[in-house]
TrEMBL record:
Residues 9-236 form the ABC transporter domain. It comes from the Bacteria. PROSITE patterns: ABC_TRANSPORTER_1, ABC_TRANSPORTER_2. This is ATP-binding cassette domain-containing protein. InterPro entries: AAA+_ATPase, ABC_transporter-like_ATP-bd, ABC_transporter-like_CS, ABC_transporter_ATP-binding, DrrA1/2-like_C, P-loop_NTPase. It comes from Sphingosinicella rhizophila. PANTHER family: ABC TRANSPORTER ATP-BINDING PROTEIN.
Length: 310
């Protein structure tokens, strides 16, 4: 696997065992610089374990990790931002001091960290709470402060472990904006989630994990192409004989010889091809609707309901 200048992160045959438990099993993938990359999988799939190995909190049992062109280690800290899954900050420190503290840990000057911290609190709607101790903030507010600690150094690589959990819809939108902002600034963003909609909206590419193993890596369109397309059609003639149509469920006649039907296409066949074939065959259409599989459908297809349990 390559780890050239365009690769922000690569895992090559990485395994992590905890005693008898194999949390990550021969995992290989790479993330290009500037990508928003989704790390998907149900509970216990190995997402947190993988992120922790990238951060050098724990070491792989086998395999090689390259992050920003180097081995995992403390020397990467100034270029990485991390939002851990278990959220915990010093309870008596104020919101602004907390962000400054993390900025300093990442090598920023106190003045630069304070300026950036104030800007972030303002953007997150928390400027009135800058001097509030963390233990007086709501859970969602504290989570936004923790997000600020992850981005204060404008990291080249931002890793967020289940960042959406515990946030209300407004703050989930704010977090999505923050991910897009980091990506627009050229950062690589990797986030784990088991909520497919966030990944659907944000990711350039995604990795699907189940029981520590890679089930899929690719773009959203590539993921969707794994499932046959479905169409909802109102036509006067049968479409069953058209090439590319796998099956047709004929519905009720709705008058004037028009009939509703549901089509399942053969894998890899595009709805546009079938539309062209309808025109070529002189089939009259009143409706031609594509039902694109959701990421959730793809997830269920690849890992089954047990793997998708959240
Ligand atoms: N320190 C540890 N000691 C023993 N087993 C562990 C340890 N950390 C993780 N595991 C096990 O490794 C597997 C993967 O866990 P991990 O936390 O990486 O999953 P996850 O995909 O992040 O799940 P979730 O969505 O529930 O957070 C699980 O079976 C878990 O019990």
């Amino acid at each position: 696997m390559s780890s050239d200048g365009d690769t922000a992160l690569s895992l090559d045959g990485v395994t992590k065992r905890f005693g008898a438990v194999c949390a990550v099993d021969r995992l290989s993938f790479d993330v290009s610089q500037g990508e928003v990359y989704g790390f998907l999988g149900g509970n216990g799939a190995g997402k947190t374990t993988s992120l922790r190995m990238v951060l050098d909190i724990i070491r792989p049992t086998e395999g090689r990790i390259t992050v920003l062109g180097r081995d995992p280690g403390r020397e990467n800290a100034s270029e990485i931002g991390f939002l851990p899954e278990e959220r915990g900050l010093y309870r008596n420190m104020t919101a602004l001091d907390t962000i400054v503290y993390f900025g300093r840990l990442k090598g920023m000057s106190a003045a630069a960290a304070r300026t950036e911290g104030s800007t972030l609190l303002d953007r997150f709607g928390l400027s009135a709470n800058a001097r509030s101790p963390m233990n007086q903030l709501s859970k969602g507010m504290a989570q936004k402060v923790q997000l600020a600690t992850a981005v204060v150094n404008r990291p080249r690589l931002l890793m967020l472990d289940e960042p959406f959990s515990g946030l209300d819809p407004v703050n989930q939108g704010l977090l999505e904006d923050e991910i897009k902002r980091a990506a627009a600034d050229g950062a690589t963003v990797i986030f784990s989630t088991h909520v497919m909609q966030h990944a659907e909206r944000l990711c350039d590419r995604l990795l699907l994990l189940a029981k520590g193993r890679k089930k899929f890596q690719g773009t959203l369109d590539e993921a969707r192409a794994l499932l046959p397309a479905r169409l909802s059609v109102i036509a006067q003639q049968s479409l069953a004989a058209l090439p590319g149509v796998e099956s047709v469920a004929e519905g009720a006649e709705i008058g004037g010889g028009w009939r509703e039907c549901k089509l399942r296409l053969e894998p890899g066949v595009e709805p546009g091809d079938v539309l062209e074939r309808c025109f070529a065959a002189g089939i009259s259409l009143r409706r031609f609707e594509e039902h694109r599989p959701s990421l959730h459908d793809v997830f269920l297809h690849l890992v089954g309901p047990a793997g998708a349990q959240t």
